[in-house]
Design a protein that fits this description.
- The complex is a heterotrimer of chains A (599), B (352) and C (63).
- In chain A, helix 11 (219-253) runs antiparallel to helix 15.
- Chain A is an alpha+beta fold and 599 residues long.
- In chain A, strand 4 (208-209) and strand 5 form a beta hairpin.
- Chain A contains 19 helices and 19 strands.
- Chain B is an alpha/beta fold and 352 residues long.
- Helices cover 28% and strands 9% of the residues of chain B.
- In chain B, the strands form 2 sheets. A 5-stranded parallel beta sheet of chain B has the order 2-1-3-6-7, with helices on both faces.
- In chain B, a hairpin with a 6-residue loop joins strand 4 and strand 5.
- The N and C termini of chain B lie far apart (78 Å).
- Chain C starts with 21 loop residues before the first helix and ends in a 21-residue tail after the last helix.
- Chain C contains 2 helices and no strands.
- Chain C has helices at residues 22-26, 39-42.
- The chains are: A alpha+beta (599), B alpha/beta (352), C little secondary structure (63).
- The interface between A and B is large, with 83 and 84 residues.
């Protein structure tokens, strides 16, 4: 199928019998997203895909001139499900800019809080939001023949999760009436208890500060967390095989389903979970401590690691325009940062030097049609500006960690081809090992499968973090926060993984105030439009390549395969649009990529 | 804010047996308040929707983050409510209300597409269409109640709270003022309890919901953070934290608790866990109309903290000395509890 | 920052104490002088009697 990046001409439209199908709003995501497509029912393909987002807030504008210490509190409000990821990343950037380092126990506490966030968010998203796309009620409406097969298909792992047939799994995912749907809601609260123990409240933390955390570390704090964690570990021993059974069934029963949401393996992972014994927040040492993270950072191209060096990752970030409503700052903008602390030149199109100057104008699909910019990663080997995606978060995290083969903490071992997760005995179930193997495709099913495995990964990492934290408490190593002074002028950057993918914060401080602040969460990467070099954005290729397996014709079409492709990326639109400036020009159909609006 | 006066006919004459909730997340929002209600247990969202609480009407929830329906299938409930086909319904707004009038064209926030014009329908338009027809209107979270983060100084959208937009004299079809449930995000059980109360009221089982001058439920926001704080005893004894991570009172390092109306210290964030200053998080006053501007930079010591804490230090050190004496005495058992052949409890035995 | 008017309302007011510098000006709190926590970190009522009685026992004051 040709990859279409131009709007279809009237002639071609007539020849191909395309039907317009729009879904606005897309539900069961966070934030505002509308999908507008043209479907070729004869050939069962998505011929054209446009996306829009309709909410603009203006963080980059109102943060200017504010106190840098407020950045974690303010940026948390960018997102109502993963805000703490922003607060954490803001703290990483502030630590670097102000020259302090979070003390060891403070770092373990932060890691435990972030692990709880992954355990919570992936759980809620997977089984209360995405799960509805795979539930019996939905499949009955979109693919009755598939449901009939599911009724007859025995679950290979039913002895582990208790659901005899695949249809039983699907019934358990029915919203509110399904047993597993309700169990997932209950587990999403248990995990938020773990989060609140460390970060005080959810989603916008209260105990996180530049320099560390205000949580009082006692033996009780960590045992309170641990007993809840063990219940989650026991639940994951059932969840992993159940989701494997469900996803494997889709491949078997619908041959070709691997093409749904598929795109080139072109992903980024900025790393998560700092190791306090290695991380000193100095930019000069970032290459080293980035590699010590318990989720290894990498740029992945066609199944290989191009780099795992955060300095390299940082320097090659580019913010391109091309299809966006902005005046380019290349000629006129201020150069805030000429070289990084190691003396490397910093590009004018790097987030440190970005100046956003909105230029509202008429929409023209051949020229500018959106408020969303195009984050890209410059590949020195080829000169390409790569449109990396974040695969919903878990997929590149597991992929990068597996390939690098560096993480080895007992509960987790990266082997070079896979990640092994070792769970200890829980109350009713024995020691259990899971192995996530690098898949053949970057597609909807593998993004979804990776999500359940990453829940297990986060739980395993948390087991290790609790042990380290208890060691600190028992030896009187109880400092959680480091004092500091805001410098007159400074720069900093933070690299982290938001639940759904790469997250970076870049700050420039002048006169002890914020002069420039640019967060780049996952959704702008995923949702970016075609850039000035003509490279299309990730959603565009993934959705346009999606074949239709739904049994309905145009009259009752639900677009379920498109929905599964879109939701596999875990789109989070408040993050997607938090930072773009503009007058909220009416955005409707744009070329494939999403978002529009501005934050 | 003007005092809310409510006509005596506010109470619906016939109790409601079925109610729809139209939940707009399309204010300038992070969706954190919807995520928060999935965290509630007292009651949980499934308790309410599955009818686990006796006496309540049957509830249908239309919230984009949780809905099974997509696109037009989801939006149809909005159109039905507008046409009067979904009566009675409760309107919930999450997110700040933008000012669409400060510019010439375009929109800050919108949801769905107008089938006649092909243009997006702004959130303000939805509020205009639905609020007057709703039996009750709830503003969920500080953005919707008072403008919140997106309304801070220097913002480009002119964001504000729902009552700023509708005016203080606004009354719903059921005769109620807007019910404000602030919090950034709203505390999970605070929101669900308020919804529960309104459902009881709609069913004719409860009198009109009691609201304070800022239109907040009185039983939730009638105390200060300090009055409910686990650490208030440290304040009184003059024991103050000098750094983050200390278990002592945080008032010198940024906590606004003494002047903020919020119950998060009293009830915790969830299941008694967490609760900002209880666990080492300075109160940044996120339930208050002045948030965030009047409390930034958050880590600075609030004015007034120096004076009151200085007084507390001198009073406190006296109290500590006295209490230490009494604590010592309390930590010793009465003298008569000892072995030996002489009974010295005050009982005079005559038979042994 | 050409397009934003600077408002003073949310900025640091000179003379206000910065929370992160309190320890610098006032020194460590009682109970935290050595970087680790003793009973005095958690109580000011007879703290010495709340410390562990045996040197092999770690200090574990309450939250």
């Amino acid at each position: 199928m040709a990859t279409l990046t131009e709007p279809i001409t009237g002639q071609e439209q007539q020849r191909r019998n395309l039907v317009e199908m729009n879904w606005d709003p897309i539900t069961r995501i966070v934030g505002s997203l509308g999908i507008f497509t043209k479907i070729d029912f004869d050939n069962r393909q998505v011929a054209e895909c446009y996306s829009t987002s309709s909410i603009f807030r203006g963080y980059s504008i109102f943060m200017q001139g504010k106190d840098p210490r407020d950045a974690p509190f303010i940026t948390s409000r960018i997102c109502g499900i993963c805000g703490d990821n922003h607060a954490t990343c803001a703290i990483y950037a502030a630590n670097m800019a102000c020259g302090m380092k979070t003390p060891e126990l403070g770092e373990w506490i932060l890691n435990l809080g972030e692990a709880a966030e992954y355990m919570f968010d992936h759980n809620l998203y997977q089984d209360n939001l995405v799960g509805v796309d795979f539930c019996e009620q939905m499949v009955k409406q979109t693919n009755p023949n598939l449901l009939a097969k599911a009724e007859a298909a025995l679950s290979p792992n039913s002895s582990r999760h208790g659901y005899r047939t695949i249809a039983d799994i699907m019934r358990a995912l029915n919203p509110f009436t399904g047993e597993y749907y309700r169990e997932a809601l209950v587990m999403s609260r248990l995990t938020r208890e773990m989060f609140c123990l460390m970060e005080g409240r959810h989603v916008h933390p209260s105990t996180l500060y530049p320099g560390g955390v205000g949580t009082v570390p006692t033996h009780q704090l960590f045992t309170d967390y641990l007993v809840r964690l063990m219940k989650y570990v026991e639940y994951m021993k059932k969840a992993v095989p159940m989701h494997d059974d469900l996803f494997d069934f889709f491949y078997q029963a619908l041959p070709g389903y691997e093409e749904v949401g598929r795109r080139r393996i072109l992903m980024g992972c900025w790393g998560a979970f700092n190791d306090p014994r290695s991380c000193d927040y100095r930019y000069e040492n970032m290459s080293r401590w980035g590699r010590s993270m318990f989720v290894t950072p990498s740029v992945l191209v066609d199944g290989e690691v191009v780099t795992n060096d955060l300095v390299d990752i940082n320097l090659n970030m580019r913010i391109l325009l091309g299809s966006s409503y902005y005046e380019d700052w290349e000629q006129t903008g201020e150069m805030f940062v000429r070289t990084d602390p190691l003396g490397n030149p910093v590009d004018k199109r790097h987030p440190w030097n970005q100046t956003t100057v909105p230029k509202p104008q008429k929409r023209d699909f051949k020229r500018n049609y959106t408020w969303v910019m195009s984050p890209r990663w410059f590949d020195k080997r080829t000169g390409d500006n790569l449109a990396l995606d974040t695969g919903g978060g878990p997929l590149p995290r597991l992929w990068a960690t597996a390939l690098n083969g560096m993480v080895d903490i007992g509960y987790i071992k990266a082997t070079g081809r896979s990640v092994r997760i070792n769970f200890p005995k829980t109350a009713l179930l024995p020691e259990t090992e899971f192995e996530w193997k690098i898949p053949n495709w970057s597609n909807a099913i593998e993004r979804d499968r990776a999500r359940t495995y990453f829940q297990a990964y986060a739980a395993a990492a948390a087991l290790y973090f609790v042990e380290q934290a208890l060691r600190c408490v028992r030896t009187g190593n109880t400092k959680t926060w480091a004092e500091f002074k805001i410098p007159e002028e400074s720069i900093g950057c933070g690299f982290h993984e938001a639940v759904r993918g790469v997250l970076s914060h870049h700050v420039v401080i002048r006169d002890r105030k914020i002069a420039n602040y640019h967060p780049y969460p996952p959704t702008p990467w995923n949702a970016s439009p075609r850039d000035s070099y003509g490279t299309p954005g990730p959603y565009e290729d993934a959705i346009q390549n999606t074949p239709i397996f739904e049994e309905n014709g145009p009259e009752n079409f639900k677009g379920i395969d498109i929905m599964r492709a879109v939701r596999s990326f875990d789109p989070c639109l408040p993050c997607g649009v938090h930072m773009y400036l503009g007058n909220g020009k009416i955005l409707r159909t744009q070329h494939s990529s999403i978002l529009g609006a501005h934050a | 804010m003007a005092t809310a006066s409510v006509p005596t006919s506010a109470r619906r004459t016939s109790p409601v047996s079925e109610v729809h909730i139209i939940w707009i997340t399309a204010g300038l929002s992070c969706d954190g308040d919807t995520i928060s209600i999935t965290n509630a247990e007292q009651p949980s969202i499934e308790d309410v929707l599955l009818g686990a609480i006796p006496g309540l009407p049957k509830v249908h929830l239309h919230n984009p983050v949780l809905a099974a329906e997509v696109g037009d299938d989801f939006m149809k409930f909005f159109y039905q409510a507008e046409q009067g086909e979904l009566d009675p319904f409760v309107l919930v707004l999450e997110g700040s209300v933008p000012n669409e009038r400060v510019k010439k064209e375009g929109y800050w926030a919108a949801q769905g597409t107008d089938h006649n014009t092909g243009q997006p329908i702004t959130t303000c338009e939805w509020i205009d269409r639905l609020a007057p027809k709703a039996w009750g209107v709830i503003a969920a979270g500080t953005c919707a109640t008072y403008g919140g983060i997106h309304a801070m100084a220097g913002n480009p959208t002119g964001a504000m709270g729902l009552v700023d937009y509708l005016g203080a004299s606004f009354r719903s079809a059921g005769g109620l003022p807007v019910v404000n449930v602030p919090g950034c995000p709203v505390q999970p059980d605070n929101m669900m309890e308020t919804l529960l109360y309104l459902l009881y009221q709609a069913a004719g089982l409860a009198p009109i919901i009691p609201l304070d001058e800022q239109l907040r439920p009185t039983w939730l926001f009638g105390k200060t953070v300090h009055e409910g704080c686990d650490r208030a005893g440290y304040y009184e004894q003059g024991d103050f934290a000098h750094e983050y991570g200390s278990p002592k009172c945080l008032v010198k390092i940024g906590c606004w608790g003494p002047v903020v109306n919020c119950n998060v210290t009293k009830r915790g964030w969830m299941r008694g866990i967490g609760g900002c200053p209880n666990v080492g998080g300075i109160c940044i006053a996120c339930t208050m109309p002045g948030f965030p501007d009047k409390f930034m930079p958050f880590m600075d010591q609030p004015p007034g903290a120096t004076l009151s804490s200085t007084v507390a230090v001198s009073y406190g050190s006296l109290m500590r000395a006295l209490r230490s004496i009494t604590n010592n005495t309390a930590n010793k058992e009465p003298r008569w509890r000892r072995p030996g052949s002489k009974l010295s409890t005050g009982y005079q035995p005559t038979t042994y | 920052m050409p397009h934003t008017k600077k408002s003073k309302i949310s900025s640091h007011t000179k003379g206000t104490h910065r929370g992160e510098e309190v320890i610098h000006s006032k020194g460590p709190e009682p109970g935290r002088e050595t970087g680790t926590r003793t009973a005095r970190d958690s109580t000011s009522i007879n703290p010495k009697a709340r410390d562990p009685i045996d040197p092999r026992m770690p200090h574990m004051p309450p939250p």
